[in-house]
Amino acid sequence: MQFVIRALDGPGMLEKRMAVRARHLENMAAVNGKVICAGGLLDADGNMKGSVLVMDFERREDLDAYLASEPYIAARVWEKVEVEPMNVVIVNGEKVQPAAKAGAEVDA
């Protein structure tokens, strides 16, 4: 099942975010194959203010276990984290065949 994670940094967290960033990227690399795409949200000045991740885990509990190990959460860089199930249909311009519920039409 795919999930979209939208995480917003707390106020004044840019310096702390940058200090923790290497650990965050290492943690994402540790779940090789689970990250469909990920990147930083930018403010008007081009500075990172949060993150968006699209990830694929078999169960929500598996995603929750990953988030429990997330350095940005442990260091309290992310102030607000929203998670929603997502049906990934196109990656890099190519249609993919995600696992869909029986009888459900796969479409963007």
Task: Briefly characterize the structure.
This protein has one domain: Dimeric alpha+beta barrel (Alpha-Beta Plaits, 2-Layer Sandwich), CATH 3.30.70. It is of the alpha+beta class. The strands form two sheets. The protein has a four-stranded antiparallel β-sheet with strand order 2-3-1-4, covered by helices on one side.
Could you please describe the fold and organization of this structure?
The protein has 108 residues and is α+β, with helices and mostly antiparallel strands. It is globular. The chain contains three helices and six strands; from the N terminus they run E-H-E-E-H-H-E-E-E. It has a single domain, classed as Dimeric alpha+beta barrel (Alpha-Beta Plaits), CATH 3.30.70. It has helices at 14-30, 60-68, 71-74; strands at residues 2-9, 35-42, 48-56, 78-86, 90-91, 94-95. The protein has a four-stranded antiparallel beta sheet, covered by helices on one side. A two-stranded antiparallel ribbon has the order 5-6.
Count of individual beta strands:
6
Radius of gyration: 15 Å
Strand coverage percent: 35-45%
CATH arch. level architecture: 2-Layer Sandwich
H/E topology pattern? EHEEHHEEE
Sum up the structure in keywords.
Alpha-Beta Plaits; 3 helices; 28% helix; alpha+beta; two-stranded antiparallel sheet; four-stranded antiparallel β-sheet; 108 residues
What layout of secondary structure does this protein have?
Blueprint: E1 2-9, H1 14-30, E2 35-42, E3 48-56, H2 60-68, H3 71-74, E4 78-86, E5 90-91, E6 94-95
Antiparallel strand pairs: 1-3, 1-4, 2-3, 5-6
